[in-house]
Amino acid sequence: MKRAKMKGGKSKAGSKKADSRLAVKKKTKKEKKAEKDPNKPKRPPSAFFVFMEDFRKQYKMKHPNNKSVAAVGKAGGEKWKSMSDEEKAPFVEMAEKRKGEYGRKMEAYNKKQGGDGSDESDKLKSEVNDENEGEGGAEEEEEDED
To answer: CB–CB of 110/120 below 8 Å?
Structure first.
């Protein structure tokens, strides 16, 4: 019995060429990445992650033999989805409190760094820019066209 040749198969030489190009791109991306400052405050957790801190402890007590992180995360996600807004309220409140603390820590950190606020995360910058756009964004565009 003879086996039929498969049609449309690619040669391995072409794929090696593509792999070498990909490797170069990855290398340049790593070089561009800025180093993280170990003194910079960590971003605050969302309400869900505040909930998960407590849920992990409870889950571990009920299931001491469970070693799967995925199982804990899945169970926590299902519980969070099934909770009402009233049940989520304490976690949302705690997250807001931590967000305020983070804001104060970032202000102190930025003052220590030089003060112009250039070290803020991109997300915080975009939130500030979004607020400013609603106030006078149309006027600025008209000035740019002249």
So the answer is: yes
